[in-house]
Amino acid sequence: MNKLIIKQINLQFCKLRLLQPLITANQTIRERTGIIVQVFDQFNSFGLGESSPLVGFEMETIIHTARSLKRMQQVLVGEAIATTDDISDLLISHNLPPAAKHGIELALLNLLASHYQRPLAELLHSSHRSKVSVNALIGQVPPDVAAIKTRQFCQEGYKCLKIKVGDPLDLLRVQAIRAIADAFTIQKNQTHKPTNQKIQIRIDANQAWTVSEAIQKLKAFAEFDIEYVEQPVNANNFNGMAEVQNSVEMAIAADESIKNMEGLEQVIKTKAASIVILKPMALGGILTAHKAAKVAIEAGLDVVFTTTLDGAIARLGALHLAAMPEITRACGLASTELFATEDLLTRRTLMTAGELII
Question: Homologous superfamily of 124-357 in CATH?
Fold first, then answer.
């Protein structure tokens, strides 16, 4: 098997501005700063990666990311890869922080996929889906604005809406969104019999509540047929999450709790959630997130892949990861639509009826 020799690594800083600030329970995000990684082989073919650390997931600062990647510019030149295992083995000894590792790993994976003239999904999975359902995202906006956004997303064909919650307007916002979503009930024709499929609504509290507040709030939301709630309490309070899970009928999803494999193991051990949200950037790469998904599925948990509001390079990598046939829920991979410019990091992926196409 011919091996690819790493000949050169280029780095380019980038900044992405959101069309509108995204307001969550614990921060307001107006822009994203990252680094594009470009790895060349001996044939002058190249693969692209992206390193974009986000506050709130215990990732490194962008300065730490840059320093780590500059070190890789030197130490990886001359190294060889031929398989995804080679990439894992190559990076494991360098103790890279998560965003830096994600960027260099994704660049190497894309280089390998380009060399074999195969989509990345084929390198990651023995079989894969050609389409991945995705959710649209609505921040902590006034109920009337949320209703307008809901109508727009439903008209665009989205079948799943994710709402940021954690403030006094929660109940009114969710009520408005549910009412509009119900008006856009999806019509399907199966065996010549018309059936209705409700648009799914999921909520994300971003650790906003105490255990008692979460139980009270989620019981109040019960009438709105919520798919699940993400991270209702502090990310490190696994036993508290389990208490919420056991006290309400709504499914609980762990998000910020899973910053690494140890966090996933704690969720499984404490039975804190029935769904896990996996972010490749936060976990340190596509391959680690793939491993985490397999561990979670083996433990009987549902998996949703999403990004940390990354650019198109990272999102496309996550899309190919989410093509796992075991993934059945909509994933959070439509974030590129939130950004203001149209370039390498904000290019659109083909979408139809709320699904991204590989």
Answer: Enolase-like C-terminal domain (3.20.20.120)
